[in-house]
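can u pls check wat happens w/ zinc ion
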Amino acid sequence: MIASRRLVLTALLALALTPGVAAAQASAPPDATARPRNVIFMIPDGCGPAAITLARLVSGRLLVLDSLLVGAVETHSADSDVTDSAAAGTAYATGVKTRNRMLGVDPEGRPLGTLLEAAKTRGLATGLVTTADLTDATPAAFVAHVAQRTLQDSIAIQMLEQHVDVLLGGDLSRWRPVSAGGRRRDRRDLVAEQRARGGIVVTTPADLAAARELPLLGLFGIGLDQIALEIDRDTLREPSLAQMTAKALELLGPASRGFFLLIEGGRIDDAGHDDDPAGVAREVLAYDRAVALALAFARRDPRTLVVSVADHETGGLGLGRRVGRASPYVMHPESLLAARASVWRMSGDILDGGDPVTVAEHGTGVDSLEDDERAALLTAAAAPDTVRRHGLLQALSEIESRRVRVGWSTGGHTGVDVGLYAFGPGSERFRGLHENTDVAHLIAELLGLDLDAETARLRGGPGTTPRR
Ligand SMILES: [Zn+2]
């Protein structure tokens, strides 16, 4: 009896540890109508439905995310059908639509309480994890209140003052003064300040793996650069989203009153802005590995709700394209498997003096460029400084996009609906089509958070007291 029970437990454990659809279908579903105590809110920045499909086609399998699809979200902001990440992040963080470029404030510029702030007020542990810069729009929307997303020095200070338990993301330079190799002009060294108040600060994957205590601040990227796109990442010097996710869950999991954790796949958007098909596919697959970890955690701790939803689509990616006389009913996603670098990295290598054709053939994995591709690349490489990067990105994107048979409508964002994914207690509530603001209200309701009270506290209304 004991032996067979152990066998069953071992089998269940194996399933729980196996990321993927098989595991999703094989174990009993959690009570979708119950209330969670932990929320893992995941945002694949700039990831529209076509990016998901492309990643699935390239990998030749279903994504973990695919098993969690429950609905869709309309993404428009207060002033545009095409949102930016600041307004979209604000909608998810506060439940209020604001204007593009505004963060954590309403269209009139008044501060709005966020899910993370309300979670702190309730005594939950909190975390922000991203492959973008920590002070970039999406994570910033949950902790900062500024009328302009570019005020990143101010955002870093606001982020520090929130006393978030786990902060992991890119761009150390925003946290250090110019005198210490950073970019801050106010002379503040926020890394030193964090250490002075007892926080752990790490800057390498090895130190991240070794971190055992809270609060934890991890700032990654080589030199003044962002964390590289997954396809370019130096695995010894920059952590993956999955590595950061695993550490955040390890440290927040034991929190006695539960936790609120935001995880952003921050650079799908950047690959989309570059119209980079291999870059997008690799970023989505890296994001999906983080989803697998979140899902495995939620299976071990069934009081955990996982929600994944993009803030908007980027690039206007279209799957299917007529090229010359070839059939428009054929795609070649497998052609992207040969790519070794993002179009951003390739264009940088050419700007640094690399031979354009050699760099392009090595980076895209294309054996030999066509004559017109070679000509377009050399024309772009010879263009004036101000337009050279853009031209190179376009020429390199075209080499890959034409082969895989995809098109792009823009180098910006688009207004298409994005997929909504949920698992765990309360996940039933996310079914169907929602406004992006609904997601914040649903999470607040399920966790018992009061966003209005948080807004009143921020505005210093009568009867309100500062939290700290
Ligand atoms: Zn963007």
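Residues 1-27 have pLDDT under 50 and may be disordered.
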